[in-house]
Design the sequence.
């Protein structure tokens, strides 16, 4: 089924100096704690006029009159800059003055809570009647008004004042005598949110060119809550606003997630439409009075105007695929998971690089990122920096860590893939969604091909959890047309580059390898020269090649390679994980990770359920314990059974030669040694003639398809490596890698490894006092699985419990030997103490 | 002398800088006891 | 600094004694780090919170400063924070922090 599309967007601002003074929490808090402060005295002289607010460049960008690129050309700070011909209306919406908005608030109030001064109404209503989107139904909701004296006395009695041009022109009264959830203050905030949401929806309906009656569903994603004392957040703003905006066939609901709310809501809308539940879903959010003048103290201190003097609102229409509009690709959705943690690199990984890697993309494949689009003019003087820019730096920095680009490219990345922030600091309003209007235009004109929208939310502010949150999605050019054309997709043969740096054998081998590969139906090109690695990286990045086979190439820590050999005994293929690189500096941890990387490579080569064996080397038992725990926690895979009579998961020399397991997990040095022996045992050693080479680098988010050969790999091995690479490219190995790693994470891999590392650091302590051995018994039963370093402690812990035991070296490693009658009890004790799994 | 070993640590993280829990993990690794960790939000 | 956080800093300083308390900051910018550092040493420069006019003189570091970084487990630091070194202006943060410490 095709993706849903962004059919249109509406963006509005409301200039509300009166609300800044009387309802912004920075100001109201100051009035309580420091009523005589200089800040409060100076504040009025820092308020902007409506005209200045209109001419402020970022505001014109928000409503669609000043393209983002043009805004970026204006040197910062912008507070003292003005656009030449400021307009109230733009292609996305408008900047409404406070007096008209107060009337709109009354139109949005259906409980007679907003009362206005007669003269004020008489003066302002004609202005609102001129408004192109205010229809008769809305205008009819505005009442004639009360006498000034009535307004004054109501405010004295505790009603929330509505101030215009320093005069009280009306009020919002409480909706209940006792219930704080219906207090004048709460009703005021909620009506402001509702009215600015209605205005956004009116603009959206016009911009998207649809009939209001065609909207099926509306999702509100503001940061307010409406309800009463028995259901404080009962809801629902969406339906309340839909009613005033004339969406007669819609119902709706509210979605919350702090600043991430809008991105959550759009993913929900896109899914509802894609599933066919609804055809047209509106996502909208109104403005927030509490955040007005939030950073006012810093602005006043620095001689700036109060820049947070506007409410913001937005509305987006998500519709069925029309074959034209940009699509919301719900297969590329990033989410901050409960287990993600709060480290910035983990957050960006979960929101950006993970979903991209799963789709076989790097950060460079997304043209524009729209994270939190806060206007830096507001945040910089307040010490919060340039928020969008630091997001771009974080995305780029993670890309550098993952080897997707060089550190020197970071500034260029920020410039090319970033956008200037221009949205008011209204929490949810700047969070990713402001760009949807511009993104729609840019993608439809072909200027850009896609954009990633990233919402992030500070859940911890609600004191319900310490967790952070976020969700992201990709908007892309419409693909529906292409679908028809590409009804019978031609199978593309991947192109693999060969960059044999420092090659030791006759270069004719490379030429032969290309021919041998062609005979297998694979396509390879030779990349030569001293700078062949740089050329290779550039060709991978541009897509000229789909993968590469190379030598003498360093991988970052965390990445190791999975080699593939043909075993001499039975001619069976076996994956050796790993053969070079370092998945972890801890040996046992490396073996566990290598096992998973081996599974990834084997699955990508078409083995549906690869079996895993562990090379019987030092630390093998620790590796086995961890893998058993992973399996027990739900990470599904099968162990191989040794071909020796006593079986088990430990692979002996015979198993290695026969290729008993599909995947042989081992440490890098041993793996490398075996790789070389398997490749050249029949040529005398200096010419590697058999197998597929050292294999692809796998690990974490590493996204490049690069396979390793040695400088002594002959033409047959190189040709096989090209075939191996082609298989991986064709099977979307990155997606398989992402899925496997996530399954392992879900089974608690991190905790298991952490536990293993800590037990590695502190070997089991021997019982405190010297334990004496109990009376000697015949010991005939071997208990396997104790690490050699712990063997003495294991024996003594049995002695302590009165069981006679001896240690010994069995053929698969150390054993604890006990009397047959006590074997069961002994195993229980050893398990309990964590010596065996 | 160590700065953090055995000290009571108060953490004031920043949503757009380093969040509180990330700092807490580091502080604990240096042998400090985290008595309070918060994350401020300017936006 | 947030008023609630100022209150908590003050309470912990009284409870454990200022010599036993270390404050670690994660601010995004040098200036913000400096302001927070000033708040827990010399007192709240904005005179808005419980630490206005209260000089606690606490030991305070930004988490990216080399003095404390040296004491963290490098693996933990790498996992939790290292990427942000590419994002933050660490030199500016250090110099703002040192400027406050120089006033003590």
Sequence:
């Amino acid at each position: 089924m095709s993706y849903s599309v962004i059919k249109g967007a509406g963006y509005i601002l409301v200039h509300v100096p009166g609300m800044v003074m009387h309802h912004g929490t920075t100001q109201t808090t100051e009035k309580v704690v420091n009523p005589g402060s200089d800040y409060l005295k100076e504040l009025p002289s820092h308020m902007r006029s409506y005209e200045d607010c209109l001419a402020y460049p970022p505001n014109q960008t928000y409503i669609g009159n000043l393209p983002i690129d043009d805004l970026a050309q204006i040197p910062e700070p912008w507070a003292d800059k003005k656009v030449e011909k400021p307009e109230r209306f733009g292609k996305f919406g408008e900047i409404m003055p406070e007096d008209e908005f107060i009337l709109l608030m009354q139109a949005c109030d259906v409980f007679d809570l907003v009362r206005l001064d007669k003269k004020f109404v008489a003066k302002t209503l004609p202005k609102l009647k001129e408004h192109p989107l205010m229809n008769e139904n809305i205008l009819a909701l505005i009442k004639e008004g009360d006498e000034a004296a009535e307004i004054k006395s109501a405010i004295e009695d505790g009603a929330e004042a509505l101030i215009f041009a320093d005069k009280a022109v009306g009020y919002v009264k409480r909706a209940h005598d006792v219930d704080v959830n219906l207090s004048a203050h709460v009703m005021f905030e909620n009506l402001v949110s509702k009215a600015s949401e209605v205005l956004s929806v009116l603009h959206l309906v016009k911009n998207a060119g649809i009939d209001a009656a065609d909207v099926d569903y509306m999702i509100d994603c503001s940061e307010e809550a409406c309800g009463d004392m028995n259901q404080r957040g009962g809801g629902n703003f969406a339906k309340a606003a839909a009613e005033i905006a004339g969406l007669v066939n819609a119902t709706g609901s509210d979605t919350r997630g702090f600043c991430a709310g809008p991105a959550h809501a759009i993913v929900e809308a896109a899914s509802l439409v894609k599933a066919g539940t609804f055809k047209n879903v509106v996502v909208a959010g109104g403005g927030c009075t509490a955040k007005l003048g939030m950073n006012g103290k810093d602005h006043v201190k620095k001689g700036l105007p109060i820049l947070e003097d506007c409410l913001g609102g937005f509305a987006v229409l998500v519709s069925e695929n029309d074959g034209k509009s940009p699509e919301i690709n719900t297969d590329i959705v990033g989410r901050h998971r409960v287990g993600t943690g709060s480290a910035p690199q983990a957050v960006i990984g979960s929101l950006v690089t993970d979903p991209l890697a799963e789709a076989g993309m790097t950060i460079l494949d997304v043209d524009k990122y729209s994270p939190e689009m806060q206007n830096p003019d507001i945040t910089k003087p307040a010490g919060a920096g340039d928020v969008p820019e630091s997001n771009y730096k974080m995305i780029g920095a993670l890309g550098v860590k993952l080897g997707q680009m060089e550190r020197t490219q970071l500034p260029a990345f920020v410039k090319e893939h970033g956008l200037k922030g221009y949205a008011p600091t209204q929490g949810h309003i700047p969070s990713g969604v402001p760009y949807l209007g511009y993104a729609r235009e840019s993608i439809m004109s072909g200027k850009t091909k896609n954009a990633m929208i990233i919402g992030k939310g500070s859940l911890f502010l609600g004191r319900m959890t310490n967790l952070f949150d976020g969700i992201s999605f990709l908007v892309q050019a419409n693909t529906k047309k292409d679908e028809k054309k590409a009804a019978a997709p031609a199978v593309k043969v991947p192109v693999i580059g060969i960059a044999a740096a420092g090659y030791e054998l006759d270069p004719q081998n490379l030429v032969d390898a290309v021919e041998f590969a062609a005979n297998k139906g694979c396509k390879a090109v030779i990349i030569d020269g001293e700078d062949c690695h740089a050329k290779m990286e550039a060709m991978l990045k541009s897509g000229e090649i789909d993968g590469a086979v190379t030598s003498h190439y360093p991988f970052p820590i965390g990445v190791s390679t999975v080699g593939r050999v043909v075993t001499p005994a039975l001619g069976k293929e076996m994956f050796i994980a790993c053969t070079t690189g370092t998945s972890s500096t801890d040996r046992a941890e490396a073996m566990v990770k290598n096992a998973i990387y081996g599974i990834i490579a084997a699955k990508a080569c078409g083995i549906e359920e690869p079996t895993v064996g562990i090379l019987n080397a030092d630390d093998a038992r620790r590796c086995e314990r961890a893998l058993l725990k992973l399996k027990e926690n739900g990470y599904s895979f099968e162990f191989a059974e040794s071909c020796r009579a006593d079986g088990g998961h430990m692979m002996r020399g015979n198993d290695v030669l026969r290729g008993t397991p599909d995947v042989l997990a081992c440490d890098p040095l041993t793996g490398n040694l075996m790789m070389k022996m398997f490749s050249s045992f029949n040529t005398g050693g200096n010419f590697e003639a058999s197998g597929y080479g050292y294999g692809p680098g796998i690990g974490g988010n590493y996204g490049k398809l690069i396979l390793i050969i040695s400088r002594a790999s002959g033409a047959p091995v190189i040709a096989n490596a090209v075939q191996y690479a082609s298989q991986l490219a064709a099977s979307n190995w990155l997606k398989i890698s992402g899925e496997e790693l996530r399954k392992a994470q879900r089974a608690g891999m991190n905790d298991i490894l952490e536990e293993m590392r800590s037990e590695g650091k502190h070997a089991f302590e021997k019982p405190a006092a010297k334990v004496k051995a109990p009376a000697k018994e015949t010991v005939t039963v071997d208990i396997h699985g104790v690490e050699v370093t712990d063997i003495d402690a294991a024996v003594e812990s049995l002695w302590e419990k009165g069981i006679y035991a001896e240690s010994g070296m069995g053929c698969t490693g150390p054993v604890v030997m006990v009397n047959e009658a006590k074997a069961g009890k002994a195993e229980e004790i050893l398990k309990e103490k964590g010596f065996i799994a | 002398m160590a700065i953090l070993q055995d000290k009571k640590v108060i953490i004031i993280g920043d949503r757009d800088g380093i969040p509180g829990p990330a700092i807490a993990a580091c502080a604990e690794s240096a042998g400090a006891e985290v008595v309070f960790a918060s994350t401020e939000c300017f936006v | 600094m947030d008023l609630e956080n100022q209150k908590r800093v003050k309470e912990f300083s009284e409870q454990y004694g200022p010599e036993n308390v270390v404050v670690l900051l994660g601010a995004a910018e040098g200036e913000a780090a400096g302001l927070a550092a000033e708040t827990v040493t010399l007192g709240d420069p904005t005179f808005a919170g419980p630490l206005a006019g209260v000089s606690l003189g606490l030991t305070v570091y930004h988490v990216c400063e080399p003095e404390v970084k040296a004491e963290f487990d490098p693996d933990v630091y790498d996992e939790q924070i290292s990427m942000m070194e590419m994002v933050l202006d660490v030199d500016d943060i250090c110099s703002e922090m040192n400027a406050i410490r120089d006033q003590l």
About this structure: Residues 5-482 of chain A form a domain with the Peroxisomal Thiolase; Chain A, domain 1 fold (CATH 3.40.47). The first helix of chain A runs from residue 17 to 23. DSSP finds 31 helices and 27 strands in chain A. Chain A has a mean pLDDT of 92.
